[in-house]
């Protein structure tokens, strides 16, 4: 995948993720309609591919206003990843040389790998995660399970023990998927399924779309450097 | 001379304001550019928002109602639909963030955001017919102690009058 194609795919996927988020905001709270209405319009233009660098710059300005409006990201990690993709894309467009463009976009690819590896690392060094207790707590009392019946999963410690280790091992070995194109596609497929299940069980639908928007960067990165 | 003094003071205030906005923006942007990716590293006590309707601004709340309680079950089809369309739940997660911020570093912003949603939800449900027109909310933290789940009140808001139009 060429750099141009990877950038274009990232624009389309990020534009879609932003459209999805903006539509949700248009529904949920009337005070934010102007801000998210503007973001919706620019995101559609980004997907179409008109004047991408200026559209990206406009989206950066809107994102700054959103950070001020909510005094931080609205939806934690998913908004952070969305903004990171946006910043890297914008930088890649405005950088004067090919090497600097690659540096900006490569940073996104590296951060994507780190997003899995670091999430695995902070879990595996925690004895509660190694025992399966942490995942039991997620289902028992955290804010995330979308229904009361899902809280019942906390009563299945054996299953959650294996689930904990499956998640930690996958996240920790994710950097190794960069070794071949085939292994990377496999890894990204499993990762997407992981985000899909998080969207179903914990309602984290924004993570699903935003993380997929960063995948072209790592596919390009793998082809470029491995 | 006096004009110069006022002019210099105005520039100083402007420079101070710009520096403050830039410092605040940098504080918000830095975790985005250099993320930590520490998802679920530790399972912290989880806040629940409960509100009470009051007849006057001095009354002590008796009946607390959980804001946006979870449904008993959700069908797989609903889960699939929510992959594309999940505004209420995402707003609820934002309220969790506001609650955590209130406990870690209380700000008027977090309290206002929670009040806005409490007022909006009340307007949608049971208060428009009621004579009760003041609202207070509290945060109940849920955590595990050995094998038991423990709930304790960790924050109680001021009492605010409810605008019957739906927002205060």
TrEMBL record, chain A:
Q: Which domain of life does the UniProt lineage start with?
A: Bacteria
InterPro entries, per the entry: HTTM-like, HTTM_dom
Q: Which SMART domains match?
A: HTTM
Residue stretches making up the HTTM-like domain:
1-223
> Where do transmembrane segments lie in this chain?
40-67, 79-98, 104-122, 160-178
Q: Which Pfam families does the UniProt entry name for this protein?
A: HTTM
Q: Which UniProt keywords apply?
A: Membrane, Transmembrane, Transmembrane helix
Give compartment(s): Endomembrane system
Q: One GO CC term of this entry?
A: endomembrane system
* Topology term for the membrane: Multi-pass membrane protein
Q: What is its main location?
A: membrane
Name of the featured protein: HTTM domain protein
Q: What is the lineage of its organism?
A: Bacteria, Pseudomonadati, Pseudomonadota, Alphaproteobacteria, Hyphomonadales
